[in-house]
Amino acid sequence: MKGDVFVITEESSGYPELLKERMGKSYPKILYCNGNVSLLSTKNIAVVGSRMTNDRGLKIERKIINSLIEAKFNIVSGYARGVDMTAHETALSSGGTTTAVISEGIDNLRIKNSIKEDINKENTLFVSQFEPGMVWKPGLAMARNKLVVALSEALIVVSAGPKKDSNGKMSGTFNAAEYALKIGIPVMVVSNKLLGENYEGNNDLIKKGAIELNGSKKIIDIILENKPSIKPQQDKLF
Low-confidence residues of the chain, pLDDT below 70? Predict the structure, then answer.
């Protein structure tokens, strides 16, 4: 699917007003979209994590997303390797919908092979806040992460490295979660005990106020407890 590009300005009726509330002066004035633009304003849950997440983590992620899809949530992520692509792939293969927020201009969008069989103009939205011809660079990825968060009712972190690695490089996942906590969006982090591996960022985010997902409660119940305005149509055990 690569069809028409829809330009949604801040004055457009389809512009999600919650971006202005959540992002303040930094909200994007224009969104470039390809696909189902109504997904901008549906009930969204963001799912993010490290590109290097272990197989156990990806399996847990798929279970979480399946439960969210059955509850009629749209899955938002950043279209990067690892957790992001697993989020999009699982949402589509489960018959759900997904929004991919890309960190380059919409003219550079490439449909990845892993979703080509399942994608159509109704179940997917690609969105960029950048000028259509802009090429990828690290700073755009960090800005993209803020839009992923701001479009969503809650953020689920599968795995995160430390805020900064030994070379001083910022973790995009950790940065996204910190931003969510800052603007009051619930953050839920998979327990390292479930992952079977120690992801330093997971522990640090829980210390900062993120909710630990340890499998003892339904993911939908946890979301509802922290965002009572959400009323999904169905529920399923995590």
Answer: 1-3, 227-238
The answer to whether 109 and 34 are in contact (CB under 8 A) is: yes
- Going across the sheet that includes 6-9, the strands are 6-9, 30-35, 124-128, 98-101, 74-77, 44-48, 154-157, 187-190, 211-213
Provide DSSP, 115-165.
Answer: GTTT--TTTEEEEE-S-TTPPP-HHHHHHHHHHHHHT-SEEEES----SB-
Query: Does residue 231 lie within any of the structural domains?
Result: no
SS3 readout for 111-123: CCHHHCCCCCCCC
CA atoms of 186 and 57, how far apart (whole Å):
20
Domain assignment present for residue 43? The answer is: yes
Question: Quick check: helix, strand or coil at residue 211?
Answer: strand
For residues 91 and 98, is the Cβ–Cβ distance under 8 A?
yes
What range does the domain containing 159 cover? 6-226
Burial readout 61-76 (b: 16 or more C-beta within 10 A, e: otherwise): bbebbbbbbbbebbbb
What total of structural domains would you count in the chain?
Answer: 1
Element (H or E) spanning 34, and its range?
strand 30-35
Residue-wise pLDDT for 4-22, tens only, equals 899 999 999 999 999 999 9
Q: Which structure tokens are listed for 167?
A: 């070379």
What is the C-alpha to C-alpha distance for residues 34 and 3, in angstroms, rounded to an integer? Answer: 7
Q: 153-171 pLDDT, tens per residue?
A: 999 999 999 998 777 788 8
